[in-house]
Amino acid sequence: MEITFESADPPALAAFWSEFAGDEIELTFVWSDAPKIEKNRIHIDLASTSPEHQADIVARALKLGAEHADVGQADVPWVVLRDPQGNEFCVLEPRPEYPGVIAAVVVDSRDPLASAEATGHPVARSGDGFASVRPEAGPWLEFVRTDDPEPITNRVRVRWADPA
């Protein structure tokens, strides 16, 4: 899986994400002068192994320039942050289904089940407003329902190879 971030300063954003991404997905950073004006349609969820680990990840991210973000999440057990260039990401509470550094790549979708099925991978789980697929190795690819209007720009993109 490859995630591409558009950025006004690709080396700085790459340095930030190198602290958290591990080697489970390929991150690519490309230059763009387009301003960030809305919530990204795609974001990364980082996994944690304990409440203390979750707090440590959040503290490290904040020290490296991340900020807390409110995307309408209300009272949830995960922490929503923005990286130094405004891209949203979450630090999840411990969940056994997420053993890696990156728990999931999350994509907003009007029809999560159809989006998951369109990947060509088997749908591993689905429910009210979400559907998930998972390769044999690496993070989940999760689609969550949104009624948000189509984004003006897609500053973060995901590319996932067709199943073999």
* Poorly predicted segments: none
Count of DSSP E strands? 11
Domains, number: 1
Output the helix-strand order.
EHEEHEEEEHEEEE
What profile does the largest beta sheet have?
8 strands, mixed
CATH superfamily: 2,3-Dihydroxybiphenyl 1,2-Dioxygenase, domain 1
CATH architecture: Roll
> How much helical structure, as a percent, in the residues?
10-25%
Shape: globular
Structure description:
The chain is α/β, with parallel strands linked by helices and 164 residues long. It has one domain: Roll (2,3-Dihydroxybiphenyl 1,2-Dioxygenase, domain 1), CATH 3.10.180. The protein has three helices and eleven strands; from the N terminus they run E-H-E-E-H-E-E-E-E-H-E-E-E-E. It has an eight-stranded mixed beta sheet with strand order 4-5-6-3-7-10-9-8, covered by helices on one side. Strands 2-1-11 form a three-stranded mixed beta sheet, with helices on one face. A hairpin with a 5-residue loop joins strand 5 and strand 6. The two termini are 14 Å apart. The model has no long low-confidence stretch (mean pLDDT 91).
